[in-house]
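Input record (one chain):
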Amino acid sequence: MVNHATANPNASTLLTIKMPEEYVNYVVTRLNGTLWAKIDGTYPMQILTHADSAPSCVPSELPMLYPIPPNATNIHLKVDESELDWSNWLHKDTHHTAIGDWNMIHCVVAPVSEQFTIKIHYEHPVEQVNSSYIFLYDLNISPYLSTRSPNSTAYFTIRMDTEVSNLKAYTATTDTEWNPIVYTAAQEGNVEVVTIEMHSVYSKSLLGDLVIMFSNEEIPEFPSWTFLPLFTIATILIATYLKKRKERKKLMKITDLALKLIAVLLSSAVATTLLIGLAEANFIPLPELPSPIYIRNDGSVEPSTAPLKRTGNTYTFTDNISNTIEIQRSNTVIDGNGFTLSKPTINTEGLMMPIGWLP
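The corresponding structure, as predicted from the sequence alone:
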């Protein structure tokens, strides 16, 4: 949510809105052969005055904007469980995200209380880029950070109702700089549940948008148009058999012709599927990130070529490290030894990224 209200310029107090927490739930599911993301966001907000001793500065109404991905549907907005009317925001250019430009919707909260909660629901198809699926959440938190409200945490829960693999999470600070982040995954029956926390601090650089990327391997389905001719042929065969039961030789010829036609249709469907797969394979794949450096339970370092020297429980850098280090044992001391530790980055410049992609 982005507020674009301004306080009364003649008032002695300034309007400040804080949002110390936000909760975003995703459900990724397959519907009629297409992957869809269903999003529910909850945003508890509080209006602050310029100083604790100042009188309340609550406006009579509060205009709000929300970036919406292309092709989003079933959009609902609520404030304190009351449905809000919304409209497309037509007075400004599109909102730029790390992987495309989005339109925004506009609503007005009225009346306004000092504390209120906004909820939003929307759904959209998950975009496919090369051989991966990808969606983004626009974490536009800066309007809610100030010296009086310097911290905010976004809690993400992502339920994968379809089987996925190679799941990766990034923060995207710019269009071309993506930084990998740690997430927690748990299995609930056949559903994989991913949880992520993103902490934003007023005095520090913001993390950027959240990007989720994964693979979803499915057995290719034959095009739906193939089933109508097959059904028609089967119907003709049955009618012919009932009408001309005694003409077995003729029936055998018809059956043989029908079987050959079915084989041709199936071959065409398979060939079409293979051609589509070959066309997709010609795109440039997204580069892979290096595997993390592990300090295992037994104290060993993996890979052994990592620039870490072990002395008892102390691991000393012998060179700069541009990677993540996962420590799997307790009582471990890391000595930087004057070197630096930085996250690996992924440069997407030059890759085929669609304009106007959605979270």
